[in-house]
Amino acid sequence: MGISSQINYYEKKAIDQRVRYTQKQCAVLSNQIVNNGFRNYNMSSLSGESGASIFEVEQLANNLEGRILLIDSHFKILADTYNRNCGKYLVTKETIHAMNGEKVSYRYIGDQYLQIILPIEDKSSEKPDIRGLIIAVVSLHNCNEMSEYLYDQRDNLLGIFIIITIIFSVLVALLIRNSFRRMQNELDIIAAGHQEEGLVEENFREFYNLSSTFNKIINRYKELENTRQEFVSNVSHELKTPITSMKILADSLLMQPDVPVELYEEFMNDIVHEIDRENQIITDLLTLVKMDKTQANLNISSVKINDLLEVLLKRISPIAEKRGIKIRLETMREVIAEVDEVKLSLACNNLIENAVKYNDDNGSVDVSLNADHKFFYIRVKDTGCGIPEDCQEQIFERFYRVDKARSRETGGTGLGLAITRNVILMHKGSIRVHSKEGEGSTFIIRIPLNYIG
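Structure for histidine kinase, as requested:
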């Protein structure tokens, strides 16, 4: 609210108080007139009793710094504190409405006075009887003086307000500048390579949110750096292990001048096996790099998911039959979706192969397909050893293995689930796992029916 608006507000409030005070005093006078009778207030025929009554009216007019007129039911002026219009008639639109019992609001007379009309009611009967009117003309001299004073002081108040605003703005600017300087110094320290440092969270809400966001970015960077270092370490270890095995086998052959053919063939088969393993690791690494969701290109087409799963199960069934594992496919409905057939086949193949590899002999693998109006769902359930609860968050990370010894025995590289997750994310989908040790695992894939690029 501006200063001028505030002055107008206080001016109106003062006038309202003046009106209420006048109405209250006139109401008291109205009761006295009804009790004493109009004849005691007729200034044209003064008597001893009427003189005292007229004195009360004049005293009220003096208190209000204005003028009081008393009008009977015939609109005749009985009393006028200015003693000008006694005996005359006053018929106006306001007096007619007031005499009919209608409420008449006050009105201004020039800039200095208000006219207030109040009916004189006899409330002794069931239906109030209007006996006449009190017209009070009230001076606004004090209210106008107050307004003039406030307007005179407006420039001073505006100047004080501007000075206070400037001082406050300077203080806030200094606080903000200091906060920015502290933040800049802390960022310089972090940029110099001290990633263990973080930003101090400021008191201002905006700076607090900014510092919190920077700290989240720094923590995310730390996690990525740790993941990168762990990935490099795992890649080095996984690539080095087959090479070390091949070197040991080759050195063993070289150390024996006359090697039997059977032993030579056995060693060479082992070397070939290690080469295949090395090749598989490199192939999976290249696949994972190509599957990077920020770089990979999808060849989207309409694919019947039912046929895709049937082809995969036919391919994997011979491997499962060797261990007595039964593979079952259950399709709730025909599902046609917009996907990259090659990449989705790779992801589903990894899940089904894992369900067979890490299953118990004579176990079972159940694959089901369902859909709603927006997504289709693939569920792969096995009866294997299950995944410990504390490992379920990490199984989609690169080179992570729950049982490293068993993974190497089955020929796993630790990259299959990472590739699967990347394929699902590229399709704007999600994958989750439910597992309990000794009771098997269930992987659930959810992918949109219509691809959103």
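The two ends are 51 Å apart (CA to CA).
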